[in-house]
Design a protein that fits this description.
The complex is a heterodimer of chains A (504) and B (316).
Chain A: H1 2-18, E1 26-31, H2 46-55, E2 60-62, E3 68-70, E4 73-78, E5 84-89, H3 103-115, E6 128-135, E7 138-143, H4 150-154, H5 164-170, E8 184-190, E9 194-199, E10 213-218, H6 222-230, E11 236-237, H7 245-249, E12 254-260, E13 264-269, H8 276-279, H9 281-284, H10 286-295, H11 298-306, E14 310-312, H12 335-345, E15 351-356, H13 360-376, E16 379-384, H14 387-396, E17 401-406, H15 413-420, H16 434-445, H17 449-466, E18 469-482, E19 485-486, E20 502-503
Parallel strand pairs in A: 1-10, 1-11, 15-16, 15-17
Antiparallel strand pairs in A: 2-3, 4-5, 5-7, 6-7, 8-9, 9-10, 11-18, 12-18, 13-17, 13-18, 14-18, 19-20
Helix pairs in contact in A: 10-12, 11-13, 15-16, 16-17
Chain B: H1 2-10, H2 12-28, H3 34-38, H4 45-54, H5 61-73, H6 87-122, H7 127-141, H8 144-158, H9 174-208, H10 211-218, H11 223-251, H12 255-260, H13 266-275, H14 279-307, H15 309-315
Helix pairs in contact in B: 2-14, 6-7, 6-9, 6-11, 6-14, 7-9, 8-9, 9-11, 10-11, 13-14, 14-15
The chains are: A alpha+beta (504), B mainly alpha (316).
């Protein structure tokens, strides 16, 4: 009898131990690609930034309307000549290894971004000449010239802070076991399989963190990613296929969130990258490019290629963006006028090759462009090319036109400067005009939004007429998730913020 | 015997040398500058220049080969530039996954293929024979990725019986591991089963017409004993050779199947590495599989040698 009593008590104790105090909240998130190295200084991919948004806090963040909001920096002030930015650093913040995040740590990080071999942040912080620690919670960045996109850069990877102690100890291997100050800390990574993060108990803003664990699972195929969501292996997927939206909408177990991207899809035309530009009427004659644009019905392209999941546009920012030049609206399709222009240019039926990466979106866009342009007299040959190869060909100017997307940056400068500056790395068109160059530089040195808007409008007037890039549309970031997930904020940069996110 | 073995092992060295040159050389034919794709969206020229230097892309081809081969000889297969992890670690991580998948797939293939082959040979021109042939045609003509997605949609999404994709180590949870592996193993096994079925069938038909089988039947042996004991044993030799070859292919990674089911094995590793121009990974993995092939081949040769006394005599 006595034994039985003890057994029951022992069983009760075991049961009590086994029952968790609160259900552990694990979010399993399906990524469209496997991220590259998880070191903010060396990182290169868009998908890596999704993981960083849980792992590494930044000096600033952006909100739903692309406003710069505080994160690790609580406030900032520009000097009178706009050549120094002084920031107050949030007190009491620690890295995942317990080290203090103070002004000295910020200085270390900015210098690491600038000096580490292979750093992808060097260009983003190029105007920063030195960093001064004024006191433990105040830091000043000194610039060679005023630089308006700086805050936006500090709201992305260039503003991510890693533990100086861990970074010094690990060197260029830091990315294998990153130590940051974000809401979640690194647990493990199996390449191409999973990245596991766990809630950081000393996070400065822990009231906003409701998840215990996040597991990122890269699943490249959109159909398989969706199947995993539907079968319950995943709670959340990013970048679902637009064609799957209607079917998932009718399923009450899931929700879809969408927001227009800050990037764009467009046709990049070789207007001066190589000799090919002059050999082809499309590259040689702006009238032919205008005819091509007029031959295209952007709404039709969006309907057919994107299942309607995009906003049409004709500029480097979407029409809803504050920097959109409203006096240059999206042109309507006008095949008759396109034909007239081709007649005037003396090439009633010009032909060109449209190079396109092998992604299904790009292929569909190319096909729709081909058939629409044909009605105006164009003979478009589609050349499907594997992405790395196409990039190399674009870089060498070995193309006539190229279907190319840009994931976008919060500041319009990030969608512009590198594409139109004469010697810039992303200027695949080979476009170069001194007046454009001057305006680009001017837009960077002006900190006044109204003035910048004016400069961008002037730029748009020139560039949209020359058409080295014909902008087509801005995709919707499409996220699908189980109804168990709530608190999602849709930020146009397409990164999943974990603050406020919870599971039922 | 010893003389033969020594000679046989000695040929491995030049073979591996040529294989390594081939791997390295063929990769150079891939268009696209690796530094350009590795430099990411921004393509900062200083980063591109840094990567050129780091990957020795600024050096002539033979020098680059020597850098790599020198590393391999000292046991250093290099590092993945994309995620900065040693290639050897990646191989150690992925090989068991692919090996498990290959073993399961070949078991499924043998179970289905050999039995279907026997049935269709024994019951030639019957309904069973036609059914087995239709199955073989289906298995050969069904694309792996399509079958994979269909299985996922049916068993995972519709019925919710199996996980749609992902991998769990058998040491963590054997049940979950098998649940995750059964569909990809079936997809792979299905295609091989079709090939094995056709070969088993034709080998069996040949053997069943042989004199000794007729003698066995004439002796009044039970048909089951004749088929399974006397005929099958002889018919299996080519089937086993074929199975071993297919197994070797499976070990080099089932690219599409691993991609569909998100199994982190060799196939996925190598495909991602090719698309990202992560040369060290491609070279390391291909060298590893090539070595495995060569060693398997050697073992097979030695096995023939041991089994067949005539070979032994001629090589003294």
């Amino acid at each position: 009898m006595r034994t039985t009593w003890w057994s029951i008590r022992a069983l009760g104790l075991i049961a009590a131990l086994a029952a968790p105090l609160a259900p552990a909240q694990t979010l399993r998130l399906g990524l469209a690609e496997d991220p590259d190295i998880l070191d903010p200084t060396l990182a290169r991919t868009f998908v890596g930034r999704i993981v960083f948004s849980a792992l590494c806090d930044k000096l600033f963040d952006i909100d739903e309307n692309l406003n710069i909001v505080p994160q690790l920096a609580t406030s900032y002030q520009w000097s009178a000549d706009n050549k120094a930015l002084t920031m107050k650093i949030r007190p009491g913040v620690t890295f995942h290894d317990g080290e203090k995040l103070d002004a000295a740590a910020v200085k270390f990080n900015i210098e690491r971004h600038k000096n580490m071999p292979g750093s992808n942040r060097r260009g983003e912080l190029a105007p920063v000449t030195s960093v001064d620690v004024i006191d433990p919670s105040t830091v000043r960045l000194n610039l060679s010239a005023p630089f308006s996109p700086l805050l936006a850069q500090l709201a992305d990877r260039a503003g991510m802070m890693v533990s100086p102690k861990a970074a010094q100890a690990e060197g260029d291997k830091f990315g294998a076991k990153p130590v940051c100050s974000g809401p979640f800390k690194f647990v493990e990574r199996v390449a191409q399989d999973r990245i596991v993060l766990e809630r950081y108990s000393n996070y400065w803003n822990k009231g906003e963190i409701h998840l215990d664990r996040i597991i990122y699972l890269p699943i490249v195929d959109a159909t398989v990613r969706l199947a995993n969501l539907k079968s319950g292996q995943l709670d959340f997927i990013e970048r679902m296929a637009a064609s799957d939206v209607p079917q998932l909408k009718s399923d009450s177990r899931f929700k879809i969130a969408k927001v227009t991207e800050i990037g764009y899809q467009g046709l990049t035309i070789n207007t001066g990258k190589s000799d090919l530009a002059q050999k082809n009427p499309l590259g040689r004659d702006p009238r032919v490019r205008e005819a091509l644009e007029l031959a295209l019905d952007r709404d039709g392209i969006v309907q057919v290629a994107m299942d309607g999941e995009a906003d049409v546009g004709n500029q480097w920012v979407a029409p809803t963006n504050g920097f959109y030049a409203k006096n240059l609206p999206v042109p309507k399709r006008d095949v008759a006028k396109a034909k007239q222009l081709l007649q005037a240019a003396g090439v009633p039926s010009p032909s060109f090759t449209l190079m396109t990466p092998t992604t299904s979106d790009a292929q569909k866009i190319a096909q729709v462009v081909q058939s629409m342009a044909r009605e105006a007299g164009f003979d478009v040959k589609i050349q499907s090319t594997e992405f790395a190869t196409s990039l190399n060909m674009a870089d060498k100017g070995d193309f006539e036109a190229y279907v190319l997307a840009w994931s976008g940056r919060a500041d319009p400068d990030g969608n512009l400067f590198s594409f139109y500056g004469c010697k810039q790395p992303l200027n695949y068109s080979g476009y170069c005009r001194q007046d454009v160059e001057d305006l680009l530089v001017k837009s960077r040195t002006s900190l006044e939004p109204a003035e910048r808007k004016k400069i961008y409008a002037d730029l748009a007037t020139i560039v949209l007429k020359d058409r080295p890039i014909i902008y087509l549309f801005h995709r919707h970031w499409l996220w699908a998730y189980s109804t168990k997930v709530s608190g999602l904020r849709t930020i146009p940069d397409g990164l999943v913020r974990v603050q406020g996110l919870r599971m039922k | 015997m010893t003389h033969y073995l020594v000679r046989r092992v000695a040929t491995i060295v030049p073979t591996l040398f040529f294989v390594s040159i081939l791997i390295f050389g063929l990769q150079q034919l891939l268009p696209g500058d690796p530094a350009l794709i590795l430099a990411g969206e921004e393509r900062d020229p200083t980063v591109v220049a840094y990567l050129h230097q780091k990957l020795h892309l600024d050096q002539p081809l033979p020098i680059r080969y020597l850098y790599w081969a020198g590393g391999v000889l000292t046991g250093d297969l290099g590092e993945s530039v994309r995620i900065q992890k040693p290639v050897a670690d990646l191989i150690v991580e992925k090989l068991p996954v692919t090996a498990e998948l290959a073993v399961l797939a070949i078991l499924i293939a043998l179970a289905i293929g050999v039995s279907a082959g026997i049935v269709s040979a024994v019951a030639k021109d019957s309904v069973w024979d036609y059914a087995a042939n239709v199955f073989a045609l289906w298995g050969l003509s069904t694309p792996n990725f399509w079958l994979g997605i269909m299985l996922i949609l049916f068993f995972s999404v519709q019925l919710g019986w199996l996980p749609a994709s992902g991998y769990v180590s058998p040491f963590d949870d054997l049940k979950a591991n098998l649940a995750a592996m059964i569909m990809p193993a079936f997809v792979l096994g299905n295609a091989i089963a079709a090939v094995l079925m056709r070969h088993t069938r034709s080998a069996m038909l040949q053997v069943l017409n042989a004199d000794y089988v007729r003698t066995a039947r004439a002796k009044g042996l039970d048909e089951r004993v004749v088929v399974l004991k006397h005929a099958l044993r002889n018919a299996l030799t080519p089937v086993i050779t074929l199975g071993a070859l297919e197994f070797g292919t499976l070990l080099s990674g089932a690219v599409l199947t691993e991609q569909v089911f998100t199994i982190p094995g060799f196939g996925k590793l190598i495909v991602d590495a090719v698309f990202n121009r992560d040369y060290a990974v491609v070279q390391g993995v291909v060298l590893c599989t090539a070595t495995a092939y060569i060693v398997l081949n050697l073992i097979a040769d030695i096995a023939y040698f041991l089994v067949n006394p005539r070979l032994r005599d001629s090589h003294g």
